[in-house]
Amino acid sequence: MKTPLRPNGTWQAREAGFALLIVLWTLALLSLLISQIAGSGRQAVRLAGNLRNAAALQAAADGAVQEAGYHLVAGGTAHWPANGAVHDLRQDGAGIRVRLDNQAGLINPSIASVELLAGLLRACGAESGAAVQAASAMVAWRYPGAQTDFGPAAYRQAGRDYGPPGAAFESLAEIGLVLGVTPNLLACMVPHLSLYRDTDPDPNAADPVVLRAIELATGAAPALTNAEADETVVLVSAVATGPDGARAARQAVLRVEPPNQAGGRTAVAVPPFDVMTWQR
């Protein structure tokens, strides 16, 4: 017996409906894939643009530090004194602010005497006896064999798992490891310290806290003169700001050759300064 045929066109209509459904689902899937790819592409473009802008701003800040170094050693109206003044520059649409701060009036904890360090600690609020103890420990940190009271045994007794290295301080933060130096004392001391001075602070460039430390150390107020402050070690800070408000910063400590007896600087190879630190 033969199977009766369905009305003409039923199978064709059903197959056409399935085909249309498949096409619609395929188009929807393709649209989703295309939107995801386009979104990823836009995100990648934005990321690349941000990285490019950040690199350009950082390069502008780096260049400003180098330019400040040349102005520092220049003579006449081109000279930028290290007096904390801010200099405004522009490069490729970015505004750059550059500041030069003299380090001559700061204390180097790696060479300072017990008396000067104790004076600084007292100027930061430490009691006289505690200041002498902490200052002695700072000197012993550099020369542990010189003061056995603050050698490795003292650190073990205090529950520390380290001892004095017998070397100059590698960073100002390292001072916080010294016995008797509290976080508050360290925070007060740091703005008045520099690891790049190889002499005692120049009173003509010193701030009131350092002047007080010198007075406490020597028993007399330091004599100030009209002599030009030493500008051989200078902290340069540069901040570049883009049109969109993005920022990049650079800090560097520069050491320049001191002026000769004629008042100028001896001709040196380019660049005419040494970069002691280079920090973002």
Number of domains: 2
Low-confidence stretches: none
Q: How big is the Rg?
A: 33 Å
Strand content: 15-25%
Number-wise, the strands total 5
CATH A-level architecture of the largest domain: 2-Layer Sandwich
Q: Give the termini distance in whole angstroms.
A: 92 Å
Strand order of the largest sheet: 1-2-3-4-5
Pattern of helices and strands = HEEHHHHHEEE
Mean pLDDT: 86
Indicate the CATH class of the largest domain. Answer: Alpha Beta
Shape: elongated
- Largest sheet geometry: 5 strands, antiparallel
CATH fold annotation of the largest domain: Pantoate--beta-alanine Ligase, Chain: A,domain 2
Helicity level: 40-55%
Describe, in plain words, how this protein is organized in 3D.
With 280 residues, this protein is of the alpha+beta class. It folds into two domains: 48-104 and 230-279, 2-Layer Sandwich (Pantoate--beta-alanine Ligase, Chain: A,domain 2), CATH 3.30.1300; 114-218, no CATH class. Helices cover 40% and strands 16% of the residues. It contains six helices and five strands; from the N terminus they run αββαααααβββ. The chain has helices at residues 10-73, 114-123, 128-142, 152-157, 183-189, 208-218, and strands at 83-91, 94-102, 233-241, 247-256, 273-279. It has a five-stranded antiparallel sheet, covered by helices on one side. Helix 2 (114-123) crosses helix 3 (128-142) and helix 2 (114-123) crosses helix 6. The longest helix has 64 residues, at 10-73. It is elongated. It starts with 9 loop residues before the first helix and ends with a strand.
